[in-house]
Every structure is written in structure tokens, then in C-alpha cells.
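User: I want to check something. If I give you two sequences, will you return the structure for each one separately, not as a complex?

Assistant: Yes, each is folded on its own. Here is the first sequence with its structure:
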Amino acid sequence: MNISLTPELEEFINQKVAGGMYVTASEVVREALRLFKDQDEYWQRRKAQLNAEIQKGLDQLETGEVIDGEEAFERLRRRSAEMRRKTA
């Protein structure tokens, strides 16, 4: 396999090898691809979770399990405030 890199990426790889974190440029590229794969898998799982939540909401809508719009926004405001407190 032959891969072309921008000069900036090539320099970045060379710096990682020169810094002693990696022995070869191939190790740097393999690590980058592993991280990319992990990130891609995370986003695929997240997408599936969101699709499941959307389907759950659509199913609830079909069965009449709905709440008033103002109540929904109030719940969102409370949830948002709770999340901000947890991260503060």
C-alpha cells in the first residue's frame, strides 16, 4: 500500500519518531489508525443509540404516550441544569 501524506503530517510523524515515542513511522500510522477506528466505532454506537431513542419516541407517539410541549421543555431545562451542575 502506498499512501501520500501532506508535508505537515509527514513532519508530525517524524517528530513522534524523533521524540522516542515510536520506533518507526509505521508505528505512528498504525496507532493513528487504531485511534481513528476506535473513534469511528464510538460514533457508530452513538448513532445506533440515537436512532433507538428516536424510534422509542416515535413508538410512544403512535401509542399516545405524549406530554405537553411546555412540560417537555421544562424537563429539558431541569435536565440541562442538572448536567451543568455535574460538570461544574
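And separately, the second sequence with its own structure:
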Amino acid sequence: MLGTEVEVSVQGTTGWRAARIDRRVLAEIERLEQVLSAYRPGSELERFKRGEVARVSAELSAVLALALEWQQRSAGTFTTSSGVLTALWQEAARLGQPPSTDALADAVDRAASPGYALIDGVAVRSGDCTGLNLNAFAKGWIVDRALGLERLRSRSTTVAVNAGGDLACAGPQPTLVSIENPLRPYDNEPPITRIALRDAAIATSGRSRRGVRVGSTWYSHIIDPRTALPVDHTASISVVAPDAATADVVATIAGVLAPQDAVERVTELGFAAFVVSPNGGVLSNEAWAALEQRVPAAGAP
């Protein structure tokens, strides 16, 4: 689902009750995927981009409104039209050479335009929506809504939903989250750190598993909308926020900044941050330190 693996974990109940929670959560994710998926040509989002939706649903309008709000708040570090940037570098990979200066400038201009506007709270197309891409936002939003089905249902059950690095949890028990070492992304590699979450969410963005090869050079999939250039100064960034949609978009915004600037920006917004630089150095803030758990050394019990 959502172009990635989705995992639902349940603490505090077992058997048919746990199975029922799992089914409800996955059913809601599948329903919302029909609205917001960029991987399904028939989703409402994709039909909206093609101009085939007469009136946008309340759910799609809500996501488009939030994404537009974050684009306006981000000072250019987040765009709703990231598909323009991705397509630029996919074409570069096909041709085997980086984009020209003119192509980069054109992509920056196109990415700055959302291609839609809000009229009385309803999203309407106002231009070219070809590059509209909500992948850095919609996945977290869907996780939040799926988890919301289980909030307050039981005071003893903890539910966590993890969709490819966007994880949200709700309930009385802490959920332990391990952070992968982006410089050694192997299944048998111990985590670089881990944290305990309770009624919160985390999003991690890194360059180790995704990107493009242009000629002999590997480029990150994280692209700065201000320059249309891939970012190479951050190996990964993790952000903890009250909900997955916020964690997702803040990780995207901070992910194009230099490590120290990224941590400062996330701190200003009031969230926890953990950044790994390309040389293996780590930076974090006090909010992250309050969540961190000791990771045993290799071979320790």
C-alpha cells in the first residue's frame, strides 16, 4: 500500500480483537489510497491532476490545503509540485548527463507554482498540475487518519502504524522506534539510535535507498526546490511531531537544509530532530534527547 510496506502493531490485546484492529486500519488506508495515491492512475488525486474531477472531495481538499499552507510557510524549501523536480532528474538519468542551467532554472520556476488554488475551502485547478506530488505529505496524513480510527477506543491498547518510515502510535504503552544507519543500510546492521514514542509520530527521510544515477554519479532523491539540485549534505533526517503528516512535511522541509540549520529549524517549530551527516556525524536537539533510548553495543545482551 502507498507504494511501500505498511505494518500495523497492536499492544495490549490479542486474538480476534487485535485482528479486527488490523483489518480496520488497513481498510481505511486502502480507502484513502483511492483518494490520494500517486501510484494509482484512477485515484482522485491523479484524476484531479488531469482535470477529470468536477468537484474535489473534502478529504483531497483538506490535504491540498495543508500542503499549500506548508509551501507558503517553508520559504521555498517545500513544494507541492515536487514531481517537476523528480521528472527533471529522471530525464537526466535517461540521458546520462545532469540538467543544464536553463533546465534547472525552468524547473525552479515551475516547482514554485502549485497549479491549484482554494476557493471557499475547495481545491480547484489554476494551472498546470502535471508536477503535483503529495508523496511527502499524503502518506503521513493517511497514517494519521487510519490510526485515528483506534484512538480512544481502549485505554489499554496501543496501536502503531508504520508506512515506509512514517510511523504514528497511540495508546498508553511506548513504541520503540529504531533509526537505521543511513551509511550502512543493511538488515543486520544495528540501529544508530532508537527512541520511545507515546501518542506521537516520526518521519525519517534519507538518501541511502532512493535516488538516480546520472552517468557515473549517484544523486539523492531529496531535491532542493530553490535550486532544483539534489541535496548531498545530509544522509538522513528524522523528525518527531504530534502527527505523521506534520513529521513528514517538516522532515522534507528541513531535509534540504544543512545539518545544523535543519536542527535549528525543527527546534524553532517545536519538534524533535535527529540528523546524520554524510561523514557519520550526528546532530540532535533537546527534544530528541528526551526520547532517546540506549542502544546496546554489538554483542551486548
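Because they were folded independently, the notes below concern the second chain alone. Residues 296-301 have pLDDT under 50 and may be disordered. The domain at 174-295 is CATH 3.10.520.10 (T-fold).
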